[in-house]
Amino acid sequence: MAEQLFNTEQAKERVILVALENQKNSASFAYTIEEFKNLAAANNLNVVDVLTQKYDRPNASTYFGKGKVTELKELVAAREAELVISNDDLTATQIRNLKKKIGGGTRVVDRTALILDIFASRAKSKLAKLQIRLAQKQYQLPRLHTALANELDQQGGAGGGSFTSRGSGETKLELNRRTIEDQITQIKAELKTLLSASTVQRSQRDHSGLKTVALVGYTNAGKSTWMNRMIEKYSESKEDIDDKKVFEKDMLFATLDATVRAIRLPNKRRFLLSDTVGFVSNLPHNLIASFQSTLDEAVHADLLVQIVDVSDPHYRDMMATTKSTLAAIGAEQIPMVTVFNKADKAGVTYPERSGEDLIASALDDNSLDAFIKLLDEKLFADFKTVELMIPFDQGAVVNQILNGNNVLEQDFTAQGTRLRVELPAAQIETYQAFVQK
Ligand SMILES: Nc1nc2c(ncn2[C@@H]2O[C@H](COP(=O)(O)OP(=O)(O)OP(=O)(O)O)[C@@H](O)[C@H]2O)c(=O)[nH]1
Ligand SMILES: [Mg+2]
């Protein structure tokens, strides 16, 4: 095959990961390292070694303590590493000092830069590209006088490059605080213009009365796959199903946009389903802030469906990550059910309900049936079927009800429009005057 003519392994940059084990991450340190390795792999890096130290707080000038820095220098030479990435954020001082101590032109970056880089290489839509550029600039600002800041800046407007793809050929911009602050202001203005359109869309939806369900969870858990299964089978509009589907792939951060689709269940009940960006532990604050509009789909949902890859040995840590990320974006109060996904790979029985949760596989039809049953129960628990008689001079009320509710029957009688409709308890109160006993 053509791809095998080149050994891409050789072209990958050789990287050493460094991390501190402290009281906070000690219990799940194996997961921390595993996740760190996965992030590096997602950025097409070749992890040649991992060096750790038990240390509660990073050394202010060199991250590791003195002896460990010497050890790192020797390891870099022995492994011919071109890049060192730290698990914690580094200050400009730490980057500069570490580079000097390691020597040999080895570059030093941190985990946040790594994540920003992955996002930059995955971003496809204009919104995602702008959001990631904003996060990059904000990250760059306090680290102005490091080589990294210059490298990041060379990515320019496209947002497609990365600190690992050297020599992009673009001219280096003169970097100063003012330049970056101006760039941030400009990106924010562009974002505002772009978002005003989508915010209008959301407020229209908010008034449509339809419930919204958001798929959330750790990256690569299978959210987009569930989204596509639902679209294939229950999309409200049956046209151009393939265009409605979202990108699903076995890689971290395949999804960087929010997608919302109208779903219609076999019992005619309708709701909106959204798919959005996946989580990873300690998502950089800048990134969360920049992606707020994308994450808002989850923040404004009536129900969250947490998708968990139960076949991953670290799935409990991943659930904890989802929990803390939801708290960080302000979505921790929203009712949530959990789908323990990829059960087909985990050697457990499925589909199986366990209270409000579901053990399932997105690849299995019976699981899809159990999935919609769960959503149906959770979303429409307080719904009742009522019969309303609305006089002809109250056309606005009829339109209000037709918009977004599940109307089972509609006919016109001498007294007015008769509707048999499913309504939530609160709305039945509103239309009490029209309810037929
Ligand atoms: N075996 C198995 N594979 C699954 C299942 N669900 C999803 N996958 C696979 O898992 C990989 C990731 O799926 P996605 O749906 O892209 O995951 P995601 O949660 O949207 O990931 P991000 O968008 O990156 O956060 C894909 O290769 C899917 O085919 C499942 O139930 N069983
Ligand atoms: Mg996805």
Descriptive overview:
- The chain is 42% helix and 19% strand.
- With 437 residues, the protein is of the alpha/beta class.
- The chain folds into 4 domains: 2-114, Rossmann fold, CATH 3.40.50; 121-192, no CATH class; 208-379, P-loop containing nucleotide triphosphate hydrolases (Rossmann fold), CATH 3.40.50; 383-434, Alpha-Beta Plaits, CATH 3.30.70.240.
- The strands form 3 sheets. A 7-stranded mixed sheet has the order 6-7-5-8-9-11-10, sandwiched between helices. The protein has a 4-stranded parallel sheet with strand order 2-1-3-4, with helices on both faces.
- Helix 2 (29-42) crosses helix 5 (111-122) and helix 5 (111-122) runs antiparallel to helix 6 (126-140).
- The longest helix has 30 residues, at 177-206.
- The chain is elongated and about 90 Å long.
- Mean pLDDT is 88; it is low at 1-8, 153-161 and 165-173.
- Bound molecules: guanosine-5'-triphosphate and magnesium ion.
- Magnesium ion is lined by residues 223-224, 248, 254-255, 278.
